[in-house]
Structures are given as structure tokens and as C-alpha cells.
């Protein structure tokens, strides 16, 4: 198995057709078919099911596709690293962020990459922390800015900042924002919580308090748009940062009350996979992310305590 065979395999997988794949790979269809047959012989298992209308990947083909993408991406990065060294920051970089991270530093990150790093191709993904972490564990992204990732031996997680959490809802439902609310009172309110999946502690640092909130939740959502709509419509309240509902707080459609006895917080981490070597572009993007986070906290846009 070599990189050429993997490229041909990916072309067939993505096109589902030998003729179109041959055009994409700029190779004769017979040669393409020969390479796929050699791969199947090497693995001693079919990678595609031949059908009248094209090529359908088998379970083995699906698994190989995931590995092939990672392998070719790593090979390309290695080639750039060796040829260019640290003199030029160049290459592809894929970064996943929780909603708060995107809201605070997404645009400044894009602007800086476009103006200062013309040889960097940035892919930026926003999702809930659990989904972002899953993308990282599958090597679909290079860096992840997420809340409270689980302790994994394959994960390098650097704490970046700590945010205070508030009880957020309409004034009619949770009362006036200037008055603190106790945690016990919060548990008796109609709570709507976001689903975080793999990173279940993304909402709070304290797992015991989190379980109490989850036990009393009337609804779980996997949509930020849905959450904002539910809150502004008075269907329930939630636990969130002021950044999460910054626009709604400014418009006074929602209020945020400080939670006491105890206060609630969560920690943001910058994560990468331990078994993937750091490239120059990854190192530079880590530095840039830390710098932008510190800048947004310093100017008061992101109400948080820096941990870097």
C-alpha cells in the first residue's frame, strides 16, 4: 500500500464511479481498477461492492477511507514541514470551537489568518463542545477549543480560562437580574439544558452539581438557535454565561442572575491529540488563539478569568 493507491482509493470512494474517479485522479480507468484490486488483495477483503450504477463501499472500505484521509493529510504536512521548516508558516489547519469561543474570537482569528498568514488555509468549525471533541478524537480537526474535556490519555488539554455561569431566562420567569439566586432555587425552575455528548461536563466544572441540574431539566436541546428561542419565549431557563446571550441581555429580552451557594463555573481548554506531532502552523495557531482569548478578556468582551 502506498500514497498513490490511497489517493486512487479516495477518488473512487468519493465519486462512487470508476470513470468519474479516473477523470478526477487523471489516470486511466483500467489502471485505477488495477490499483483497487491490488488493495483488496493486500487486505484480503473487498473494499467496494460493484453495482450496475457504480461502486458502493463495504464496511472495510468505509474504515479505510477514514484512515486514508488521515494518512495522506499527515504525509502532506510532513512534506511541508521538512521542506519549509519554520521559516514560512504554511499549510492546512482545521480548528473546532465551542459556541462561546467562536463568538469571542472567531472573526478576529479569521481576520488575522487572512492578513498575517497568507499561506495558511484555515478551516473553522463551530459546534457544541461534545461534538467538537468528537471531531478531534477522529482526527477530523487539528485543534479544539472546548469546555471540560474528559481525561483521556490521548488528549493534551491546556486550560485557557474560567467562566462564571448564570441563571438565564426572562425576567418574568426568573426574577430581576440584580438579585442573586441560590443553586437550590435554580433546581426548582423549569430548566432547559444543552446536550454536550462526549464532553458532558461542558456546562459545569462540578459533576455533582451538574447531575442535579440534569435530573431536574424539563428539556434537552442540541441546538443553540432552539435554546435562544425557547429562552426568549419563556418556555424555561438555563445555566449559561453572559457571553452566550450577550445580544439578548443587551436588548433586555433576557436577564442573567448570579448563582450563589455555590457559585457555578466552567473551564475552557485548548486541546490536541497527543499522538499527532505538532506542526509549525499548529504551534502558531495555538499562540494566536491564546493571544486572541487574552485580548478579548482584557477588553471586557469575554467576562472570564484567564488561566494562561
Question: Helices and strands in order, then pairings?
Answer:
Blueprint: H1 3-15, H2 18-25, H3 29-43, E1 48-51, E2 54-57, H4 59-84, E3 91-97, H5 99-116, E4 120-126, H6 129-137, E5 143-147, E6 155-169, H7 171-174, E7 181-182, H8 183-187, E8 191-194, H9 207-216, E9 217-221, H10 224-232, E10 238-240, H11 246-251, E11 255-260, E12 264-273, H12 280-298, E13 305-306
Parallel strand pairs: 3-4, 3-5, 7-11, 8-9
Antiparallel strand pairs: 1-2, 5-12, 6-10, 6-11, 6-12, 6-13
Helix pairs in contact: 1-2, 1-4, 5-12
Helix count from the secondary structure assignment: 12
Strand count, sense and barrel status of the largest sheet are:
9 strands, mixed
Low-pLDDT runs of 5+ residues are none
* CATH fold descriptor of the largest domain: D-Maltodextrin-Binding Protein, domain 2
Give me the strand/helix succession.
Answer: HHHEEHEHEHEEHEHEHEHEHEEHE
Judged by helices, strands and strand pairing, the structural class is alpha/beta
N-end to C-end Cα span: 44 Å
Q: What count of structural domains?
A: 3
Structure description:
Helix content is 46%, strand content 24%. With 308 residues, the chain is of the alpha/beta class. The chain has 3 domains: 3-82, Winged helix-like DNA-binding domain superfamily/Winged helix DNA-binding domain (Arc Repressor Mutant, subunit A), CATH 1.10.10.10; 91-158 and 268-303, Periplasmic binding protein-like II (D-Maltodextrin-Binding Protein, domain 2); 160-266, D-Maltodextrin-Binding Protein, domain 2 (3-Layer(aba) Sandwich), CATH 3.40.190. Strands 3, 4, 5, 6, 7, 10, 11, 12 and 13 form a 9-stranded mixed beta sheet that branches. Helix 5 (99-116) links the parallel strand 3 and strand 4. It is elongated and about 75 Å long.
Amino acid at each position: 500500500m502506498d500514497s498513490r493507491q490511497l489517493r486512487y482509493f479516495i477518488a473512487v470512494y468519493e465519486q462512487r464511479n470508476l470513470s468519474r474517479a479516473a477523470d478526477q485522479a487523471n489516470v486511466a480507468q483500467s489502471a485505477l481498477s488495477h490499483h483497487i484490486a491490488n488493495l483488496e488483495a493486500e487486505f484480503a477483503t473487498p473494499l467496494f461492492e460493484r453495482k450496475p450504477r457504480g461502486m458502493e463501499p463495504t464496511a472495510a472500505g468505509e474504515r479505510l477511507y477514514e484512515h486514508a484521509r488521515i494518512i495522506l493529510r499527515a504525509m502532506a504536512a510532513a512534506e511541508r514541514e521538512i521542506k519549509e521548516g519554520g521559516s514560512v508558516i504554511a499549510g492546512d489547519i482545521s480548528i473546532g470551537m465551542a459556541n462561546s469561543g467562536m463568538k469571542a474570537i472567531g472573526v478576529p482569528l479569521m481576520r488575522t489568518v487572512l492578513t498575517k498568514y497568507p499561506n495558511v488555509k484555515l478551516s473553522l468549525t463551530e459546534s457544541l463542545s461534545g461534538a467538537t471533541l468528537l471531531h478531534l478524537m477522529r482526527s477530523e480537526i487539528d485543534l479544539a477549543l472546548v469546555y471540560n474535556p474528559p481525561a483521556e490519555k490521548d488528549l493534551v488539554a491546556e486550560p485557557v480560562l474560567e467562566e462564571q455561569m448564570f441563571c438565564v431566562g426572562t425576567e418574568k420567569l426568573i426574577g430581576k437580574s440584580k438579585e442573586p439566586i441560590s443553586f437550590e432555587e435554580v433546581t426548582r425552575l423549569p430548566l432547559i439544558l444543552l446536550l454536550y455528548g462526549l464532553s458532558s461536563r461542558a456546562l459545569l466544572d462540578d459533576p455533582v452539581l451538574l447531575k442535579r441540574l440534569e435530573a431536574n431539566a424539563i428539556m434537552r436541546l442540541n441546538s443553540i438557535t432552539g435554546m435562544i428561542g425557547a429562552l426568549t419565549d419563556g418556555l424555561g431557563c438555563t445555566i449559561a454565561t453572559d457571553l452566550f446571550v450577550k445580544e439578548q441581555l443587551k436588548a433586555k429580552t433576557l436577564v442573567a442572575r448570579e448563582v450563589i451557594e455555590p457559585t457555578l463555573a466552567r473551564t475552557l481548554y485548548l486541546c490536541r491529540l497527543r499522538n499527532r506531532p505538532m506542526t509549525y502552523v499548529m504551534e502558531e495557531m495555538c499562540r494566536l488563539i491564546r493571544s486572541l482569548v487574552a485580548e478579548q478578556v482584557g477588553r471586557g468582551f469575554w467576562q472570564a478569568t484567564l488561566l494562561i
